[in-house]
Please model this.
Amino acid sequence: MKYNPTEIEKYWQQYWAENQTFAADNKSDKPKYYVLDMFPYPSGAGLHVGHPLGYIASDIYARYKRHKGFNVLHPQGYDSFGLPAEQYAIQTGQHPEKTTKENIARYREQLDKIGFSFDWSREVRTSSAEYYKWTQWIFIQLFQSWYNKDTDKAESICTLIQEFEMNGNAKVNAVCDDNITPFTAEEWNASAEATQQQILLQYRLTYLAETEVNWCPALGTVLANDEIVNGVSERGGHPVIRKKMTQWSMRISAYAERLLQGLGHIDWTEALKESQRNWIGKSVGALVTFKLKDSESERDNVDYILSGDETNDYKIEVFTTRPDTIFGVTFMTLAPEHELVPKITTPDQKDAVEAYAEATARRSERERMADVKTISGVFTGAYAEHPFTKEPIPVWIGDYVLAGYGTGAVMAVPCGDERDYAFAKHFGIDIKNIFDDVDISEEAYGSKDNVKIANSDFLDGLNYKEATKKAIEALEEIGQGKGKTNYRLRDAVFSRQRYWGEPFPVYYVNGMPQMIDAKHLPIRLPEVEKYLPTEDGQPPLGNSKEWAWDSIQHSVVSNQLIDHETVFPLELNTMPGWAGSSWYWLRYMDAHNNDEFVSKEDEAYWQNVDLYIGGSEHATGHLLYSRFWNKFLKDRGFVSQDEPFKKLINQGMILGMSAIIYRISGTNKYVSKNLKNEYETEGLHIDVNMVNSSDEISTDVLRDWQPQFSDAEFILENGKFVVGREVEKMSKRWYNVVNPDDICHEYGADTLRLYEMFLGPLEQSKPWNTAGITGVFGFLKKLWKLYFDDKGLIVNANPASKEALKTLHKTIKKVQDDIENFSFNTSVSQFMICVNELSSMNCHERVILEPLAILISPYAPHIAEELWKRLGHDGSISTVPFPIFNPEHLVESSKEYPVSFNGKTRFTIELPLDLSKEQIEEIVMNDERTHKQLEGRTPNKVIIVPGKIINIVG
Model:
C-alpha cells in the first residue's frame, strides 16, 4: 500500500471543511489560546512558497495547542482594501471589488491546499461593508473623544464640553493643538455653534488640519512615512514630494508615552521593541524661545525708534536636549518648509531660499533623515537674538531639519554636535567652544560625561545635569523657555485621495465636519465611472453623482439635491490602508455580530492575541497603529485589554534562487556561466522553472520562452548551457517565484510544510532550493512504511522494545521543547532520526506508532489523520491528547562494556549498571570469550571502572 498524498490530502481537506473541525467555541470550558497571522493582501499574483512560511509556523503551534487541551482560535481573513486593485482598475476600468473577489478566491484555493487549520467561519474582509461599518464606527468614537492628561486616558468629548460650559478651558490639561486661545465659561456659552465646533476640533482625537504630507502625484494620494522607501513610494516606486493639505489626522501622539511603557509588558523581540522606541523617539530637554531681530528696514520704523526694542513679533521655538549648551549657539537652522521661512527671508535671499525649499519638497522625510553625508543649506538673511547675551544669531534653512519633528527648528551648537560642526565648517560659521579643557579643533565633543561647561556666564564650572537644571530655571525666569519632554512620533495622517478604501462617515455643514449617526452605518462606497482624481483635482469620490447626505432621510442621495440646508456634501477622501487592520483581531472574536464590533462576553473570553506571527516590516506601521487603537478602545471601555498582541514573532523570508544567463555586451550572443569571464557580459534573469537541478537549461526552451532569444547564439561548455545562480527576494520581476501549487501537486502539502520548516530557524531568511524537497518527501514515504507494506497495515499489538520506547520518548521531549521554543526546523530533523531508528529496529508496534502519528500531526496533518484513521480511530486526530514524556524511558539500565586485553578491545558485553566491581569481574572472568583470550593464563590485573571500561592486563 503506497503513500498517495494527492488522494489523502484531498480527502482530509474536504473532511475538515465539511465537519468544521477547526471552528472555535466562544463558550468553551477549555482554556483559550488565540493564534493569529498578519492577514494577507490578496494580490493578483497569488501565493508563492515564501508566503506560507509564517502561516505554517502558526498552524503548527495552533494544532499543538489543540492537542494540549486548549480551545484554539486560529482565524484568517483578507486585508482587501489597497492600492494595487485600484491601480489595476485605473488601467482596465474593472471595478476593484471584482478583482479583489477573484484574488481572494485564488488565495483561498491555495491556502486550503496547504492544509491550514483556520476557522474559516470567522473570515473577515476589510473591504466588506459589513466589516468597514465598524471601522467607520471606531472613527466616530475617536472623533467624539479627547485625551485628558490628568486621568491619562481618552474620554468622551461630552466631559470636555461640560468643563468648557462650567469653567472654560483654563484648567483643561489635554493633548491638543498648539497655541490654544484661553476662554472663560461665559465666552464659551456665548459662542456660536460653528465657533464651538472649531474649538473642539483642536482637542478631538481625530481632527481636520492643514498638515505637511507626503504627496505622490503618480498615485494621486498621500502616503504615510512607512509607505515610502528610499524617497519613492513603496508601491510602484513613484516620486514623493512634501506639500500642505487639509487632511484628517489621528492624535496618536497622545499615546506616545503609553506606547513606550507598554513595550515592557509584551513578549516581543528586543529588535522590534527598539524599532518602536526609535520611531516614538522620546527625548527630555527644554523648549527655548528665540526672538527675531528687526531687519534694517524695520529699524527705520517709528515704533523701533521710540521703543528701542531690537526684536519684532516673530519668535522661533526650539526643542533641545542640551539646554546646558545654550551659550554655544552660533546659528539656527529651520526646516525649509517652516512657516516662518517666507516671512523672515530678506529680499536678497528670497530666490535662493525658494529654490532650496522647492528642491527639498521633492525628497521624503526618510530620505532626508538617512542622508547624513550631504551638507546643504541657505542663509535666510534673518537674525535671531540670543536669550541671554542678546547677540545676533544667523538663521539658516537646511533639509536635515524636519518641520514635523520637534518645532521644525534647531539651535545649532557646533562645538557639541557633529552635524552642526560639519555645517558650520562647510559654510564658515563661527564655532564657539563652551567645554572646559576640551579640544574641538578637529571634531565636535558630543559626550555629556566628564566635562565642565565654560565660556557660558552663570553656567561656568557646572556639569551636564547642573547646567541643564540652571539653564532651564534661567529661561523660565525671563519667559523664554521651560523644561519639556518631546517625542518624534507625529500625529498620523488619516486621509487618502483614493477610491478603494473605507468611506468616512462624515458630511459637511458650512465647512464643518459632522458625524453620521452610527445607526445609519455603513456608508457604502458609491459607484464611479473613473477611479482617477477629478479634473479639478478632487479625490475619485468626486466622480460619483450620488455622494451627498440627506440629513432628514438619513441616506446617500444625488449631488444635485445638495442645498446646504438638509442635504450636504459627503467627505471625498477615503481612509488609509491601515484603518481596517488596526482592529481586525477583535472582529474575529465575534465575526457575525450585527449590533456590536465585538460583544463584551466574547471579548472578555478571548481577551487578546496570545501569539501573533508576521513580518518585521510592520514594526512602525500596523503594529504601532494597532496598539494605539487598542489602547483607545480600552480607555473608552469597549475592550478589556491594554495591549492587542501578547507574544509576537517575526518570520524571516524565503528567498528565491534566481537563474542568470550572460549576454555578451552589445550582441545577442549568450555564454555559459563558466565562460563568462572570457567576455564582457551583462546578466539577465530567466525563469527558474526552466532550469534543471544541475543548473542547466536547454537552449531550445530559451528560444521558445521569449522572442529576444529566438535567433540568439549560445556558446556552450562541454555541450551544455549552464546558468548562474543568485539569492534574491522572491519576485515575479526576477522570474524566481516558485508556486506552492506545483509543490503540492508533485509532492503533497505535508512535504511542503515540513520542508519550509526544515529550511532553517523561523526568524531567519533562507534561500529556497526545490532540489532539497525530495529528501523530505522520501522521509514521509519511510514514515508510511512503518505502518504499511504492499499488502496493507502491518501495525501489531506487541509490547515495545526498550530501544523503541527510548526513541519515542526522546522524540516526544524534543518535539515538545522545540514547538514551545518555535524551533521548528530541529523538530523535523528529530522526526527523521526517529523514523530512521524505528525502521532499523523493524518497529511496527501500535504502542509506538500511535503516539508518533500524534507527534507529527501539527507538522504533517494530512498523513497523520490518515494514519490515525487506518489505525482504527474515528474522527480527527486534531484534538487527541499530546503524548506525555516519560523520562524513565531515557534512563539507561544497562551498559555495553568494551572488554579489552592489554588495551585492545576483543569483545563487548552488556551488563546491568547496578553491578559492583566484584560482580562485574566475576561475570567477565567466567565468560567463554575471556577464557579463549587468556588461553589458560592468569591475568596480572583486572581493571574495572563501573559504567565505563573493563581491561584485563597480562
About this structure: The CA atoms of residues 797 and 846 lie 6 Å apart. The chain is about 30% helix and 20% strand. The first strand starts at residue 32 and ends at 37.
